[in-house]
């Protein structure tokens, strides 16, 4: 089933980078495009950075995540808490057609439980780090992402990394290894694990600045191919 609805919320911008696995995190060994802003209207072929396909936790579970993000995540205004599945994504004008295709494919995907318990990190250049909650089971999210990617094979930026697709929910950016490790330890020590049922995927979009907060365009239910 597809639901069409709209609201404004927050989350982070996923930079297309190449990652190298380390013991506690992933190291950026490629180009971090977040350091090279592109024009807001720019299109990458048929893709645009003003849309994405994401998995969003239920709003009633946001507060512990947002409490950290409001202080430590510079992308909190633009994005809602989310796990990116496809980004950059197709133009907003394509959402209705794409939602129908995703619905047909997602009818065979049963909803599943997602746990947010462990804090990990990406290492970028110049001792810059992104900290994120690691969604589990990872394998279920990887399978879902691969399935969705078959509909839009050109939207493959999130898998163009040494270790492939890494499901994550970003909560902070920190500069300096010592500061990052201290922050990670403090947050992990006080973190109460969150669990939710992943039962839908969401197509989101935004305008160019100043009204550049992501909002929901289409929602596609897992486990059913029925359309309203």
Describe the protein's architecture and organization.
- The relative contact order is 0.26.
- 21% of the residues lie in helices and 31% in strands.
- The strands form 3 sheets. Strands 2, 3, 9, 10, 11 and 12 form a 6-stranded mixed beta sheet that branches. It has a 5-stranded antiparallel beta sheet with strand order 1-14-13-6-7, covered by helices on one side.
- Residues 4-23 and 27-44 have low confidence and may be disordered.
- The chain has a single domain (2-13, 50-221), classed as Alpha-Beta Complex (Cyclic Phosphodiesterase, Chain: A), CATH 3.90.1140.
- It is of the alpha+beta class.
- The chain has helices at 63-72, 95-106, 138-149, 177-190; strands at residues 2-3, 19-21, 25-28, 43-44, 47-48, 51-55, 83-86, 89-90, 112-123, 128-136, 169-175, 194-198, 200-205, 215-221.
- It is built from 4 helices and 14 strands.
In short:
The chain is of the alpha+beta class and 228 residues long.
Number of strands: 14
How far the N terminus sits from the C terminus, by CA atoms, comes to: 6 Å
Shape: globular
> Mind telling me the CATH class?
Alpha Beta
Structural class: alpha+beta
Number of helices: 4
Mean pLDDT value: 85
CATH homologous superfamily annotation: Cyclic phosphodiesterase
How is the quaternary structure best described?
single chain
Domain count: 1
Radius of gyration: 17 Å
Order of helices and strands: EEEEEEHEEHEEHEHEEE
CATH architecture: Alpha-Beta Complex
User: Which residue ranges are poorly predicted, with pLDDT under 50 across at least 5 consecutive positions?
Assistant: 4-23, 27-44
The CATH topology label is Cyclic Phosphodiesterase, Chain: A
- Fraction of residues in helix: 10-25%
Question: β content, as a range?
Answer: 25-35%
- How does the major sheet shape up? 6 strands, mixed
């Amino acid at each position: 089933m597809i639901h069409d609805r709209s609201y404004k919320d927050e989350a982070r911008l996923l930079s297309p980078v190449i990652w190298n696995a380390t013991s506690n995190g992933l190291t950026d060994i490629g180009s971090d495009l977040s350091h090279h802003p592109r024009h807001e209207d720019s299109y990458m072929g048929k893709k645009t950075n003003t849309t994405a396909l994401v998995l969003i936790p239920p709003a009633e579970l946001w507060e512990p995540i947002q409490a950290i993000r409001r202080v430590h995540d510079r992308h909190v205004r633009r994005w809602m808490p989310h796990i990116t599945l496809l980004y950059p994504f197709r133009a907003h004008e394509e959402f209705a057609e794409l939602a129908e295709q995703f619905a047909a494919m997602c009818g065979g995907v049963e909803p599943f439980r997602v746990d947010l318990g462990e804090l990990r990190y990406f290492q970028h250049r110049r001792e810059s780090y992104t900290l994120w909650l690691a969604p589990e089971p990872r394998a279920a999210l990887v399978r879902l992402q691969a399935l969705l990617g078959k509909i839009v094979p050109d939207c493959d930026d999130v898998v163009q990394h040494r270790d492939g697709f890494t499901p994550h929910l970003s909560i902070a950016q920190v500069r300096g290894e010592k500061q990052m490790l201290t922050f990670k330890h403090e947050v992990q020590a006080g973190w109460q694990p969150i669990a939710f049922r992943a039962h839908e995927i969401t197509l989101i979009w935004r305008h160019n600045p100043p009204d550049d907060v992501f909002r929901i365009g289409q929602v596609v239910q897992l486990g059913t191919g029925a359309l309203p």
